[in-house]
Amino acid sequence: MLDGLKRLFSGSSAAPAKDWDGVVPWAVSKQYAFREVQDEGFVIDGKLGTSPWRLEWGPSQRPYIEGHELRLRAELGLHSELQLVVLNRVLADQMEKSVYDQYIEGVQTRIDNQTPPEMRWLVMFPKLGSTELGPLKDRFVALGSVKTWLAKWLDGPLAQSLLSVRVADNVPVVLMIGRGRLMLRTAMTDPSVAPLQAWLRVFEAAMREAKRMASESTDSVSPSTHGSLWSASALPGDERDGKK
Question: Which domain holds residue 201?
Answer without folding.
Answer: 72-242
